[in-house]
Amino acid sequence: MSLGRLLLTGAAGALGRQLRPRLRPRCSLLRVSDVAPMEAAQSGEEVVPAALEDRAAMLSLLEGIDAVVHLGGVSIEKAFDVVLQGNIVGVYNLYEAARKHGVKRIVFASSNHVTGYYRQDEVIDANAPVRPDGYYGVSKAFGENLSRFYFDRYGIETVCLRIGSSFPEPMDRRMLSTWLSYDDLERLVVASLTAPVAGHTIVYGMSDNKSTWWDNTPARHLGYRPQDSSEPFRAAKEAAQPRLDLNDPAAIYQGGSFVHKGPFED
Ligand code: NAI
Ligand code: 15L
């Protein structure tokens, strides 16, 4: 199934650089965008620089687009004013442009930090109330809520991916529970774009890890079936990292070290 005319934001970032070549052959057109420098356009691509907080640029960016994979924005905890521009003003600009151009579906890169203040000894699903662990998590919760509003009011479907930790391999003990391989990321994004009915869905972006804090049962209609697991990395990660200090909030809460970030000076 062709993904049609697809926009990929955040194309210069770590996950954007992974997804760009994987999505290109599936699209009739892949338009890639970022504020940071991007590789030159390949056949079947358009490269369009744009800042998310630039409303006019975003309106023109979405012209003629069928669906969006929205990875762009601030991807770690930062001062509120920085997060505000990229992740709150920016996501509003994206959805308004989508509404004006009749875009049908958006895959929104949310984050596990929307629920980072749940404990590592509990398993939650996407129906649990949000408990963000910082301004970054709050901004992703805003994106999830805004996308729900645009679905209820305007029928724009969104799949919010609460991505765990998507890296070449888990980097520490925590990521044994949160890891999402790049291949599974691709599977999840493609499933989100091609599910016959997506509505407004929130799904945790994780591989088939043996230990997990998240239950994706409410998103089974997407048809996402992870094929990788953090388990082959477990012995090495446990040997490399001494046992966790269970008085440390980073070892207690699912958000890990994000619970230590800030406050930031103005
Ligand atoms: P990244 O930081 O490598 O890429 C984000 C891209 O967005 C960058 O290329 C940056 O230039 C661009 N960007 C930032 N502010 C912008 C603005 N105002 N206007 C236009 N472009 C802007 O992040 P990464 O790892 O590739 O993550 C992609 C998305 O997935 C992010 O939204 C992040 O929050 C989310 N995510 C990633 C996780 C991971 O494990 N890599 C985990 C959870 C969520
Ligand atoms: C995120 O949301 C970040 O974008 C990423 O850099 C990782 O730190 C990830 O969460 C995580 O929780 O491991």
UniProtKB/TrEMBL annotation:
Keywords: NAD, Oxidoreductase
Keyword Ubl conjugation: no
InterPro entries: Epimerase_deHydtase, NAD(P)-bd_dom_sf
Any Pfam family hit: Epimerase
Domain of life: Bacteria
Keyword Iron-sulfur listed: no
Domain NAD-dependent epimerase/dehydratase: 7-167
Regions that span the bilayer: none
GO molecular function terms noted in the UniProt entry: oxidoreductase activity
Similarity field: Belongs to the NAD(P)-dependent epimerase/dehydratase family.
Protein name: NAD-dependent dehydratase
